[in-house]
């Protein structure tokens, strides 16, 4: 878990109040699920790169999967350290099969709590009688699953179909 709350004044980014609750909740949930959880607070871009590079080089042979929780400010395709931004693709690419051999064929899950732009989702009222006046994001009931990573082709076998749909 990388939990960035306090930012260098030169970035102009505000403190992320409430992020410690997210970090504690994520730590609790994933520890209960049997994951070895480490929390890194207020990491600069270089520190995040160092932490995730080190983790990607660890031996994950005995792990069934890998989970990374990123809590910070963000924008489309970027994630913020306490002193600036880094492309998310750089951080996640450290765990690709050609770079992290002990996680080949194992799920690698990245939970990213960060903005992806400046558009505002004001939500929509639910019709649930239990939550009168409750609002949920307009896309709260969507799960986006892509057949390939951004920037890559999506492969399909002409006889058996795509790996993605076969896996469903």
UniProtKB/TrEMBL annotation:
Report the residue ranges that make up the Caspase family p10 domain in this protein.
135-168
Which is a GO BP term held by this UniProt record? apoptotic process
Q: Which keywords, in A-to-Z order, does the entry hold?
A: Apoptosis, Cytoplasm, Hydrolase, Protease, Thiol protease, Zymogen
Annotated SUPFAM superfamilies = Caspase-like
- What InterPro entries does this protein map onto? Caspase-like_dom_sf, Caspase_cys_AS, Caspase_his_AS, Pept_C14, Pept_C14_caspase, Pept_C14_p10, Pept_C14_p20, Pept_C14A
In this record, what's one Pfam family?
Answer: Peptidase_C14
The enzyme's first-digit EC class, named in words, is hydrolase
What sections of the sequence does the record tag as coiled-coil?
none
Q: Which domain of life is it from?
A: Eukaryota
Q: Where is the Caspase family p20 domain?
A: 1-119
GO MF term set: cysteine-type endopeptidase activity
Q: Which GO terms describe its cellular component?
A: cytoplasm; death-inducing signaling complex
Its primary localisation, in coarse terms, equals cytoplasm
Where does it reside? Answer: Cytoplasm
Documented EC number(s): 3.4.22.56
By sequence similarity, the record places it as follows: Belongs to the peptidase C14A family.
What is the official name of this protein in its record?
A: Caspase-3
Q: Report the source organism.
A: Gobius niger
Show the taxonomic lineage.
Eukaryota, Metazoa, Chordata, Craniata, Vertebrata
């Amino acid at each position: 878990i990388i939990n960035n709350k306090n930012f260098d004044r030169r970035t102009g980014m505000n403190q992320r109040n409430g992020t410690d609750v997210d970090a504690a909740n994520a730590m609790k949930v994933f520890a209960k699920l049997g994951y070895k959880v480490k929390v890194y607070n207020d990491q600069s871009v270089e520190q995040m790169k160092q932490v995730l590079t080190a983790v990607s080089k660890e031996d994950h042979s005995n792990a069934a999967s890998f989970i990374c929780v990123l809590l910070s400010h963000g924008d489309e395709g970027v994630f913020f350290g306490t002193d600036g931004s880094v492309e998310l693709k750089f951080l996640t690419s450290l765990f690709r099969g050609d770079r992290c051999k002990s996680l080949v064929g194992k799920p690698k899950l990245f939970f990213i709590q960060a903005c992806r732009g400046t558009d505002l989702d004001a939500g929509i009222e639910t019709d649930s009688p239990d939550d009168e006046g409750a609002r949920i994001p307009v896309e709260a009931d969507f799960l986006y699953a892509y057949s390939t990573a951004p920037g890559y082709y999506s492969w399909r076998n002409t006889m058996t179909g795509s790996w993605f749909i076969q896996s469903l």
